[in-house]
């Protein structure tokens, strides 16, 4: 009994040792010298094994914080009917293995390694041969040898090939792997600079070889052939081309792509600059183009550019701010009319027929402090019936609550969508400029600037209109500015 346990231990110890050392040997020099997440050696894309034999799969990497394994898209751990592979913790979870393969173990195995900013993955397919004896057919390549290798002059070169050869129970059968150059004798003293390093795993069932060149010169560029055999008449040959890498080919992938980064930063800065310029000058440019190229309407039967409707409580704003500024500063013809929320007066209907636009000053006082769609909608229906060009200037934001989902709320949204809504927000110079520019864009081109005498008469008329408004708080007022 003790002898059998000792025999099992002796058989498994070399296998376990190989599992532990596989990812620690033959690492790429670039992976040792450069930081960041990356694979540290060549990884096979195809794996082969015989039923009931030992098998291990590897994912050699560095710079990662987590590593995950998947079989046909299913994450580890796997139930027995999916796979018999388990993690080997001593290899930092870079290796999974099975002591005795089953037919369910065949499939695609993917390892995913990730850190805080990057994720890389690798997939290898596993084929399981259902044979009573060992595999004895032609060697099967496991690592996909690239057709081209690019190396700069004076830099080291590293080329690798590998294949599954199985076991052939013949006295003269040996597994061999070697590199050669067509037309070059690799055994001459001049060829000693080519160093070949043979490796094996899975108890010599998988063999491979590295070809190292310490410093590449121009004579080294050309074709290289890797030959792998398990008998004299079963040989597989893999070919690759060693080519010179230009210095302009770009930075390695593990370095920061400065050119792309500069392009992205410049693009972001340009986009931000354009957004700022557009936000600051777009409306002003549109207004300039309108004043420059559009003509003021004539002979249209209208006497005023704008009819301002307001409640008595908003007289200061309507007369002292809107009418005065539009008339004195921007030279528009303006008339005013007091309204209430119940119905549109006959005087308002008459004034609207003589005005090109109708502006309504909206505030809670106009609707008896009931600032809801139920109270606002009836007035807007009346105004939309008597005029088609309505400008709405809310003095206070309308709270969007459940009442806007009612029938009146839906109707009011539809009415407001046909109006030009310009909110009175003048806390900053930019907001004041935006308000007046937006308002002027909705009006026709103004009259030519008046003379000094006409300007004095306009200011006097506006002042009288303001005083008359307070004297007649319950009557309609019409003032030509």
From TrEMBL:
Q: Which GO terms describe its biological process?
A: symbiont-mediated suppression of host type I interferon-mediated signaling pathway
Domain Ig-like per the UniProt entry, residue ranges: 35-127, 141-237
The record's section on PROSITE patterns has: IG_LIKE (PS50835)
Q: Which residues form a coiled coil?
A: none
Please verify whether the record's keywords include Secreted. no
Sequence intervals crossing the membrane: 261-283
Keywords associated with the record: Disulfide bond, Early protein, Glycoprotein, Host-virus interaction, Immunoglobulin domain, Inhibition of host innate immune response by virus, Inhibition of host interferon signaling pathway by virus, Interferon antiviral system evasion, Membrane, Signal, Transmembrane, Transmembrane helix, Viral immunoevasion
Its recorded name reads: Soluble interferon alpha/beta receptor OPG204
Superkingdom: Eukaryota
Q: Which InterPro entries match?
A: Ig-like_dom (IPR007110), Ig-like_dom_sf (IPR036179), Ig-like_fold (IPR013783), Ig_I-set (IPR013098), Ig_sub (IPR003599), IL-1_rcpt_fam (IPR015621), Toll_tir_struct_dom_sf (IPR035897)
Pfam families tied to this protein: I-set
- Function summary: Counteracts the antiviral effects of host IFN-alpha/beta and key IFN-inducible proteins involved in viral RNA degradation suxh as host OAS1. Acts as a soluble IFN-alpha receptor and thus inhibits the interaction between host IFN-alpha and its receptor.
Subunit description: Interacts with host IFNA1.
Q: What is the residue range of the signal peptide feature?
A: 1-18
Q: Which SMART domains match?
A: IG (SM00409)
């Amino acid at each position: 009994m003790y002898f059998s346990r000792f025999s099992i231990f002796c058989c498994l110890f070399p296998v376990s040792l190989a599992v532990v050392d596989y990812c620690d040997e033959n690492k790429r020099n670039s992976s040792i010298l450069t930081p960041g997440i990356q694979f540290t050696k060549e990884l096979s894309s195809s794996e082969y094994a015989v039923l009931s034999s030992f098998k291990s799969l590897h994912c050699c990497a560095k710079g990662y914080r987590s590593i995950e394994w998947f079989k046909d898209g299913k994450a580890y751990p796997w139930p027995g009917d999916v796979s018999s592979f388990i993690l080997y913790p001593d290899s930092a979870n870079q290796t999974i293995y099975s002591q005795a393969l089953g037919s369910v173990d065949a499939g695609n195995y993917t390892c995913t390694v990730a850190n805080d900013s990057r994720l890389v993955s690798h997939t290898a397919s596993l084929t399981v041969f259902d044979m009573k004896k060992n595999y004895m057919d032609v060697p099967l390549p496991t690592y996909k040898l690239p057709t081209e290798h690019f190396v700069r002059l004076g830099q080291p070169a590293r080329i690798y090939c590998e294949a599954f050869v199985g076991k052939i129970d013949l006295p003269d059968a040996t597994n061999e792997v070697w590199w050669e150059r067509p037309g070059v004798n690799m055994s001459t003293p001049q060829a000693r600079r080519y160093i070949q390093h043979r490796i094996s795993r899975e108890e010599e069932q998988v063999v491979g070889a590295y070809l190292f060149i310490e410093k590449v010169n121009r004579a080294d560029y050309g074709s290289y052939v890797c030959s792998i055999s398990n008998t004299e008449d079963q040989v597989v040959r893999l070919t690759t081309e060693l080519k010179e890498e230009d210095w302009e080919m770009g930075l390695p992938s593990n370095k920061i792509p400065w050119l792309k980064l500069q392009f992205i930063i410049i693009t972001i800065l340009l986009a931000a600059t354009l957004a700022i310029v557009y936000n600051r000058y777009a409306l002003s440019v549109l207004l300039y183009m309108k004043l420059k190229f559009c003509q003021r309407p004539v002979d249209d039967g209208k006497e005023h550019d704008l009819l301002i409707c307001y409640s008595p409580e908003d007289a200061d704003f309507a007369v002292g701010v809107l009418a005065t500024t539009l008339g004195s500063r921007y030279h528009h013809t303006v008339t005013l009319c007091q309204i209430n929320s119940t119905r549109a007066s006959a005087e308002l209907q008459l004034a609207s027929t003589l005005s090109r636009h109708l502006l309504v000053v909206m505030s809670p006082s106009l609707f008896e402090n009931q600032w809801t769609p139920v109270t606002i909608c009836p007035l807007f229906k009346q105004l939309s019936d008597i005029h088609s060009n309505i400008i709405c200037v809310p003095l206070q934001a309308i709270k969007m609550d459940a009442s806007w989902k009612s029938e009146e709320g839906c109707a009011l949204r539809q009415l407001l969508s046909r109006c030009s809504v310009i909110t009175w927000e003048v806390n900053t110079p930019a907001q004041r400029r935006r308000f007046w520019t937006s308002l002027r864009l909705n009006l026709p081109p103004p009259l030519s600037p008046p003379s000094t005498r006409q300007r004095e008469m306009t200011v006097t008329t506006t002042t009288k209109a303001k005083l008359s408004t307070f004297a007649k708080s319950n009557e309609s007022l019409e003032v030509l500015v």
